Amino acid sequence: MTVHHAIWPEGLPDRAVHTTSWWRAHWVKLNLQLHYMLHIRSARRVRHALSDEGVPDPQVCEWRLREAGAIPPPGGWPDDMRVGGHGGQVIDVAVTTHSVV
């Protein structure tokens, strides 16, 4: 069974890193957390989505979190946030938001 990971700074799904390696996923998450600890004024939480059914789409994840009433990222949710390009594929995805501190 292959687990697909997507890791990105909250509110910035265009910066997502995709991998199927557990080690690489946690290495990327650690690097993002260290980066934002050193740049605390621009700090963002780190999102980690994983699925064994397909590749998680960070755009869809952010949109779903917004629709579910999640705490908005710094600067708020974008007004033009749209979900597209996922081809209607529905997969089961678990999203965890990690704090920096």
Q: Give the SSE string.
A: EEHEHE
What does the largest sheet look like?
A: 4 strands, antiparallel
Mean pLDDT: 88
**Could you tell me the radius of gyration in angstroms?**
13 Å
Give the strand order of the largest sheet, numbering strands 1, 2, ... along the chain: 2-1-3-4
Alpha carbon gap, first and last residue: 33 Å
Question: What is the count of β-strands?
Answer: 4
Based on secondary structure, the structural category is alpha+beta
Residue share in β-strands: 15-25%
Q: Domains counted in the coordinates: how many? A: 1
Q: How many separate helices?
A: 2
Morphology:
flat
- List low-pLDDT spans: none
Helix content: 25-40%
Model description:
The protein is α+β, with helices and mostly antiparallel strands. The radius of gyration is 13 Å and the shape is flat. The chain has two helices and four strands; from the N terminus they run ββαβαβ. The mean pLDDT is 88. It has one domain.
